[in-house]
Amino acid sequence: MSHAANNAPFRHTVVVGAGAVGSFFGAMLARAGHRVTLVGRAAHAEAITRDGLQLHSGGRVEAVRLAATSALAAVGDADLVLFCVKSTDTDALARTMAPLLRDDALVLSLQNGVANPQMLATHVRGAGQMVVPAVVYVATAMPGPGVVQHFGRGDLVVGPLTGTDADSDAADPARAARLQALAAFFAGAGVPVRVSPTVMDELWSKLMVNCAYNAISALAQVPYGRLVELPEIRELQRAVVREVVAVAGAEGRRMPLADAMAAMERIAPAMPAQFSSTAQDLARGKPTEIDHLNGHVARRGAELGIATPVNQALHALVKLAEAARAAGSPANAAKTKAT
């Protein structure tokens, strides 16, 4: 372990739900000399214990040595937890994990959707504990146990859970210092991190992009570049964005419509060959996170009195496709994952 690692603000990082995204960030920290334990499926943990994590990045393959287990009890020794589970599992796993955590644990939510950090915080409530939302920008895949492919980016935006309210983390100097320490910790491992007082706004912005792309890519099983070749689909995406912006505004989030449209339209040219994570889950016959993407917008819209017919329709159609797969439709080949 390096001298820098010995003086790091976090002594032991545990990744809960170590799939492609969590394993990538865990590997980056381990490469920098930090103590890291991945908690994931048994086959993944066994392969890593035997051969190291095989990290494919930049045309190279590196075997990264780090601990791996399928036992959640490993979080009991962690002062930093990277929480990477699917949104559908957040409540149950957080409920089980919370009693195991150290009093000073910082839990970083590296998840899609906007409701996960607050859900985590309902269970992780110790006086010295802290839940931190993160917006994740990385393209990864896990083609088999013990193997992670990295295709692009690998940066984070972190910030206080409750935005800029007077009683929030943003107004607490000690918690603000922990956020800066967290950013420096990752930066030392080659992971750029930006601290934003409006990280929840940025999570909503990412939700907007996911809502505009994920379901459509999944239903048609096409990558982003082909998806936007049709004017009808581009107009459908714009309708999705207008609905998300309306709901976000009612939630008190700042998301100017012009900025949201521009952000959505930048995605396909930047990643024309990319299939959404929802498309990959559907192709593999795995449960998707659609309830926490378009489904979340539709639910919140209904609660707030805002019509969201396009998000509601996309949510329902993906649920139908999931049901068809569960009934025995053949799965397609796995595709690159972007979160």
In words, what does this structure look like?
The chain is built from 13 helices and eleven strands. The two termini are 30 Å apart. About 3% of the residues have low confidence. Strands 1, 2, 3, 4, 5, 6, 7, 8, 9, 10 and 11 form an eleven-stranded mixed β-sheet that branches. By secondary structure, the chain is α/β, with parallel strands linked by helices. The protein is globular. 46% of the residues are buried. The protein folds into two domains: 187 residues, 3-Layer(aba) Sandwich (Rossmann fold); 131 residues, Orthogonal Bundle (N-(1-d-carboxylethyl)-l-norvaline Dehydrogenase, domain 2). A hairpin with a 2-residue loop joins strand 3 and strand 4.
How would you concisely characterize the structure shown here?
The protein has helices at 3-6, 20-31, 42-51, 90-97, 116-123, 173-187, 199-220, 224-227, 231-250, 257-270, 277-283, 294-304, 309-326; strands at 13-16, 36-39, 53-57, 60-64, 67-69, 80-83, 106-109, 130-144, 147-158, 193-195, 337-338. The chain is an alpha/beta fold.
Write the layout of secondary structure elements.
Layout: H1 3-6, E1 13-16, H2 20-31, E2 36-39, H3 42-51, E3 53-57, E4 60-64, E5 67-69, E6 80-83, H4 90-97, E7 106-109, H5 116-123, E8 130-144, E9 147-158, H6 173-187, E10 193-195, H7 199-220, H8 224-227, H9 231-250, H10 257-270, H11 277-283, H12 294-304, H13 309-326, E11 337-338
Parallel strand pairs: 1-2, 1-6, 2-5, 3-9, 6-7, 7-8, 9-10
Antiparallel strand pairs: 3-4, 8-9, 8-11
Helix pairs in contact: 4-5, 7-9, 7-10, 7-11, 7-13, 9-10, 9-12, 12-13
